[in-house]
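User: I'm preparing a small set of examples for a lab meeting where we compare how different chains pack in three dimensions. I only have the primary sequence for this one, and I'd like the structure in token form so I can line it up with the others. Please keep the answer compact; I'll paste it straight into my notes.
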Amino acid sequence: MNKFKLSLLSLAVSTAGLSSLVAAQQQPPAEEPVAEEQQVEVIQVRGFASSLFRSLDSKRFGDVVSETISADDLGALPDVSIADALTRLPGISAVRTGGQAAEINIRGMSGGFVFSTLNGREQVSTSGKRNIEFDQYPSELINSAAVYKSPKASLIEGGVAGTVELKTTSVLQNDKDHSFNVNLRGMFNDRADEVPDGQDTGHRFSFSYQGKFLDNTLGLALGYARLYQPSVATQFIGLAYNGQKDVAGDEQNEFISEGFEIQHLGGEETRNGYLGSIEWQPHDAFSLKADAFISQFDKESFARGFRVKFGGDAAAVGNPVLNNRSVIGGTFNRTSQSFTRVEIVNDDNRDYDEVKSFGIAANWDINDRTNLVFDVSHSTASSDFRNGLLWALVAEDATVAAPQLDTNVSISYLLNGMNLPDIGFNQADAFSDIDRVMVSKYGIYPFVNSDEVNAVKLDLSYDLDLPVVRSFEVGVRFSERTYSNDRSVFEYGSDGAFLNSQPPLQLTADMATVVDFQGDFANYPSYLAIDLDKALTAWFPQGVPQPVQTWGAGNVGVVNRDPTSNVDTSWSVLQSGEVYEDVLAAYLMANLDTEIFDLPLTGNVGVRRVTSDQSATDLTDVGGDVLRGAQNITDDAGLVNNQYAQSILGDKYTHYLPSINLNLNLTENTYLRFAAAKVISRPPINRLASNTSINISDDGEINGSSSNSPFLRPFEANQYDLSYEYYFGSGAVVAALFYKDIQNFINDFTIQEFDFAGAGFAVPDVIVNEDGVPRATFNGAFSTAVNNDRGGYIRGLELAYTHVFDFLPDFWSGLGVSGSYSYTESEVELINTLGGEAITTTFEGLSKNVFNGTLFWEHEGVEARVNARYRSPFVSSQVGIDEQITNFDSELVVDMQFGYEFNDNLKLLFQVNNLTDEPTKSYFGQKAQTGTLQFFGRQYFVGAVYSF
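Assistant: Understood. Below is the structure token output for the 948-residue chain.
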């Protein structure tokens, strides 16, 4: 049997040039001697080419199908976040938010199917779901990341798409006794001058220290990373088609969009990351390591421009232009029944996110064969998000004592596919006239959520002296997770009228500035940008409560509700609540090392047993009936609601998850891998929350509905992987096939004769109807989210190629290429009606074609590379609109980097992200029905890295 000697693998990765295959740290089992004549040659090259070869080593000797990235030193990964780095791996693509990668998709599956750990510990998310927002993690503080595409029994369950394992540094494994790294870069965005008050410059700064003490028995690592960057964009957003009207005169209704938005986005993003690690190894058989990781990501942004409301079926529609039966153009005129209008928007959004991860692990070699690892961890994520919305409407004359809303509204538009639409307004001149525009409403809508998991696990491995099984592993893990969300509201005025009780505000010259659209948007009307603080100070009269906020340190504070408002805000109670999730998992796994037909065969086979106990707080609408449990419930805004009964609902279930990974060494340089497993992904944590409405009819029939459900079960899939890998002296070729048999999805469904009492709902046995006659209640229908038994396959092909052209003359010997291509298809079809007509779409996150390529050249300290990432159209949530699922157009993102290494300590870098200024574009089912057109600009970085 061939034995392989592995060196310590590490990789220094750049933003623009991270290859599609990257490295992880691997070492051979200590008990396996290495035959001198069977050692695999380790190619000794420097720079980026070296990282590629180490990457190939990692893939070559790994026991599962995986891709990895790592850094030689803490702080050496220069990407803005670990999300940017991950998107350059085969089969992985990104959903860009604000022009940057945030959520990743793996093999055509969205972020909700991606599980993530930090130092082997489950991570919770600031997204309010389970989707990890990887832009929360500074790349400077992450030492390595692995994407496991095939699982093994010892991995924590949860990733149908895959598992991303992030790791911070382990100091005692360093070659150096002490190391220090400083990274400083300035940043410039070339579209910031198109956004009023937009910031065009930013910076990145990080430093790290790693040291070994007490004869290399004590290790200490400290790191800090700061990112300050402008957030700028100019965008058009088409809104969902939620109205119907016969505009063609054929006695059939056509679908009408709610309207559209044209806006400037600006603001700033500040992320501070902190890392601390201490490791103690008093002797070879025992080590104790404690880790702390904190990332605070604060975003303060504004949206300015206008929002158009077409007015639904009550508006007068002239000269309609249709795409099938959906209106994509025409002239909308306000009628006495419609709300057709143009709103001048000056919104203020604040989002304070924080992730904390703490853990301590003890690793003990009990004897020469037995190893025991005990780990305790705590992970929290909190997000304090606040919409501050300021509406302004056009008045006939804003200077008079009793101003009137200008109801003479006519809006003409024609969508232009993936280009900006043609738009005209009869009120266009008024949008920038201080004597016509008046502030009519202000509202604050805080959304605070927190997610916390505490876990403890114990893993034991035992080496065997058997022909087939090299060792076995057994372990147990218990975790407690609590998720909570809280809503509250402040509202004053009206977004569709001028109220007498809350009259509109007349603007003064010091409150507003005329803003012009520029660049691609230069043909659109100017508007008034309003100073929010000055307007609110002038507007709120004596005695009216102003919104009070205690922002900072992640504290949303208190938001007072206007006592004179008659707006129904019961949703603030219904959208608040908690979810509890306890998980007990145990596994048994055998590690294989044998031969078949005289060919070395390694791998593992095992099973993981997972018992989940989940529950959620529930509010059942009992119409204020105290006998059925109605209570006074007060939200953070002081709103008291007495219509609901509180309870706890939930479910408990067990999964068995078998897995097998086999690696066959066909020749010294050729490998064949096969993997099979049953996998699960839990429902989005917010969908386990319960928001139930129950109605009991006069004859006693109980009916109910809930958009979420604490009874939801995980997604399940059986998956298979087969890959062929060939390694040659200066590169490799890899081809892989994968197949996922998805067992179920979450759909909205109506269950007939649902057992409400058995499920824990507060329902009576008998009611008294309107005639005073007692009626026994009986079960009716319950409409809710359920796991259906309809699934389907996701299957695909991945190809990867790496080659350093070392046969070229000396000057060109550092020229190389690395690339990957993924093809993914699925029979799963989802129905989307946001574009009006029901249209089938692909599975969310699936791009049929994904390409990633890097061309690089290195010579005598000079480093140059260009990276291109392409993904074909896919389905995802539209930027800026909650729960608006659209089709995203294909995109090609190109980055470049040039660097010069003066010596082993100092390196200068110049980088450009989004070199071609690629926008984000989306549409509703068909490109004729425009969704989002968002332009971000290019980002330029100039800086230096110093290490010693």
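A couple of notes for your slides: Confidence is low (pLDDT under 50) at residues 1-46, 548-561. The longest strand covers residues 640-667.

User: Perfect, thanks.
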